Amino acid sequence: MSSMKAVIIGPGNVASQTQMIAPEAVKGHAVVQLTASALNHRDVWITKGQYPGIKEGAVMGSDGCGLYRGKEVILNPGLAWGLSEACQGDQFRVLGVPDNGTFADFISIPEEYLLPKPVHLSCLEAAALPLAGVTAYRSLISRAKAKAGERVLVTGIGGGVALMAMQFAVALHCEVYVTSSDQEKIKKAVSMGAMEGALYTDEGWHNDFLNKSGGFDVIIDGSCGSSFPLLLKMLRAGGRLAFYGATAGSIPPINPQLVFWKQLSILGSTMGSPSDFQEMVDFVTLHSIVPVIDQVFSLQDAGAAFRRMAEGRQFGKIVFDHSI
Amino acid sequence: MSSMKAVIIGPGNVASQTQMIAPEAVKGHAVVQLTASALNHRDVWITKGQYPGIKEGAVMGSDGCGLYRGKEVILNPGLAWGLSEACQGDQFRVLGVPDNGTFADFISIPEEYLLPKPVHLSCLEAAALPLAGVTAYRSLISRAKAKAGERVLVTGIGGGVALMAMQFAVALHCEVYVTSSDQEKIKKAVSMGAMEGALYTDEGWHNDFLNKSGGFDVIIDGSCGSSFPLLLKMLRAGGRLAFYGATAGSIPPINPQLVFWKQLSILGSTMGSPSDFQEMVDFVTLHSIVPVIDQVFSLQDAGAAFRRMAEGRQFGKIVFDHSI
Within a domain: residue A238? Predict the structure, then answer.
C-alpha cells in the first residue's frame, strides 16, 4: 500500500491537505494517476456545509486529467446519471464527496467515466474542462438549443460555466453578449469574441442593453434572484432562458402574460448526461476550444485556491497542477 | 348589397346583436357562409374591455364552420402568424375584433385560412374545434412534447382548451389526470378516459394527488396563480409545465433549485402556427376526436351564451347554430 497526497473534507467541513493510502486496482475500475484537477463552486459550498451528502474524510474535487495505461484521459464527473436523457436519476452523484474525487495523486473510478484527453489541450487546460464544460453544453445546446446566428446573453461572465457557455456560443457563430459586475471581465470577454457587455451593477442596465442588442434568443444564467424578471423581459419572442444555478437566490414573481404571449421557455439545467459529456468533448475538439485558466496552484496551496474562488474575482478556472 | 345578422362589439364594449351589410367577394378572399360558430373566453374578455385593440363595430367570434363553393370548411383563427414556428410575429391577430369574426351569417377571409371540415364532425362540433384545439395542441404537443405512456395533468377541466388537451392526451395514450372545483366535471372527464381527478378546492389536494399519481411528466395549465408552485412540485424529474393562460393571476416566487435540479421546463404557449393548426386537424381526424359541446344557442340568444361562459359552469364549448 502506497501513500498519496490529497485534499479531503475534514472535521467541521474544512478542506484539509493530508496524506492517505492510494487506491488499489479493483475489477472494472481504473486507477488513474491524476496530473491536474480544477476547483468548482461546488467545492467551496461543501466547505460551507451547503451541500447534501457530505462524507467526512472523502477526497474532494470533480474535475481531473491524468494518466491511465500510458494514455492521457479526462474524467466525466457525472456518476450514475441513469437511463433518461431528460434528467439524472436517483443514484446520480457529482464526483468528489461522497465518492473520492480528483484532489489527489490517484483516483479509482469505473472505466466508463474515462475519455481520451482532447489533443489540443494541455493537462491543465483539460482538467479545467469537465464539470463547467458539460454544465455549459447542456444549458446552451441540449436545453436552450442555441443555433448559429442567434443572439445569446451569458450572465456573470468570469465564472467557469459562464465562460465556457460564452466560448461555445461564439464557436456556434451566435452573437454573444455578457454581463458582469467588473468592467475588466467584460473587456476580456469582448477580446474572446463577445460583442458587448453590460455592468449589471449599473442602474437601468437592462434597458440600455435591450436597446443595444434588440433582445436575446437565448439567455444562460447561473444566478436567478432579483434580475430574473429583467432577463425574461430581455428575451425576444420565442426566447429561451436556461439557468444552471441560483447564486442570487429565489425567482421573484413572474408576469405570466409575458411568458405565454411571447412563447418563452424557462429551462432548469444541471450537469449533463454521458451523451452531453461526449458531445461536449467532441464539440470542444472540433472547434479547438481552450478553457480559460485563471490561476494555477499546487495541492499544498489548496487553501489559497479555495480563498480565491470564494472571493469571486477569478476569470476562468482555478486549477491544481499535481506535479508542483 | 345584402343584409346579414351579426354580433358586434358595440358602444361600451357590449356584445350587440345587429343587422349589417354582408361582405362582398374581394380577390384572394373567400366569402364563407357561416353555419356555426363558438364562444371563447376571449369574447367575454373583449366585452369587459380586457383586450388590446378592441374596434367598436367589428363582428366578434374566432371559431367558425361554414360553406364555401359548396364545400364545408373550418377557419384557422390565427391571422398573420408570421415566419417563425417559435412565436407569432408583430402582425399576428386572433380572428374576431379587430378583424370581422364568425358571429355572423357571412365572413370575408383570405382563402389560406380555410381548411376542409373533418368529415367525422358535424358543423356544430367542427365550429367548437379551432381556437381551443390549436391552443391545446400547441401546449401539449408542440411545446410540452407529450408522448405515449407519459403521465399528464390537465388543470381546470371543463374549459374548452383543457378538455381538448385532455382528449388529445388520451388519444396519445398518455395516462391523464385532471383537476376541477366541481366533482361533476371530474366524473365526466373520467368517463372520457381520464384516470382520476382532484378537487383543487380541497386542502392538501396536491399531496394526495402526488401520492396517487406518482407525479407528472407534463402539466397543462391555464390559470397560473397561487397553485403554480404546487404544480411545479408535482412534476417528475425532466417534467414540462406548459401554460396558455393566467386566469388566477401572477406566478408566485419559485424555488430555482427545484427547477434546475429536476431539469424542469416552464413553457409559455398561446394559439398556434399554421403548421400547428394543420397538424391539430390531422390529429383530430386520425383519432376521430369529437369536441365536447356544452350548450347550443342561436345568435339571437348571444346574451345568454355570454352569461353562461362568464359563469364558468360550462363543460365544453358554447356553440352558436346559425340556422336557428
Answer: yes
CA distance B108 to chain A (A): 27
* Within a domain: A274: no
* Same-domain status, B204 and B160: yes
Residue A142 sits in the same domain as residue A254: yes
Same domain, A262 and A295: no
Mutation pick from A84, A231, A254 vs chain B, by most beta carbons of B within 10 Å, is: A254
Question: A43 and A78 share a domain?
Answer: yes
Within 8 A of A84 by CB-CB distance, chain B residues are 237-238
Q: Please check whether residue A280 lies inside any domain of the structure.
A: no
Closest chain B CA to residue A266: B266
Q: Is B51 on the interface with A (CB under 8 A)?
A: no
B162 with B50, same domain? no
Among B86, B252, B263, the residue with its CB nearest the CB of A270 is B263
| Whether residues A138 and A112 fall in one domain | no
Substitution target from B135, B139, B257, B263 for chain A, most A beta carbons within 10 A = B263
B94 at A interface, C-beta within 8 A? no
Q: How many domains does chain A have?
A: 2
Q: Within the 134-163 window of chain B, which residues sit less than 8 Å (CB to CB) from chain A?
A: 143
Residues 220-249 of B with CB under 8 A from A: 224, 236-238, 243-246, 249
- Boundaries of domain holding B55: 3-129+291-321
Question: What's at B147, amino acid-wise?
Answer: K
Same domain for B75 and B10?
Answer: yes
Per-residue pLDDT of chain A (324 residues), as tens digits, is 689 999 999 999 999 999 999 999 899 999 999 999 999 999 999 999 888 788 899 999 999 999 999 999 999 999 999 999 999 999 999 999 999 999 999 999 999 999 999 999 999 999 999 999 999 999 999 999 999 999 999 999 999 999 999 999 999 999 999 999 999 999 999 999 999 999 999 988 999 889 888 899 999 999 999 999 999 999 999 999 999 999 999 999 999 999 999 999 999 999 999 999 999 999 999 999 999 999 999 999 999 999 999 998 899 999 999 999
Residue B243, C-alpha cell as written in the block: 401554460
Asked if A262 and A297 sit in the same domain, the reply is no
| Cβ-Cβ contacts under 8 Å, A268 against chain B | 256, 258-265
User: Do the chains contact at B268 and A264, CB–CB below 8 Å?
Assistant: yes
Contact A138, A269 (CB under 8 A): yes
B278 found inside a domain:
no
CATH number of the domain within which A91 lies: 3.90.180.10
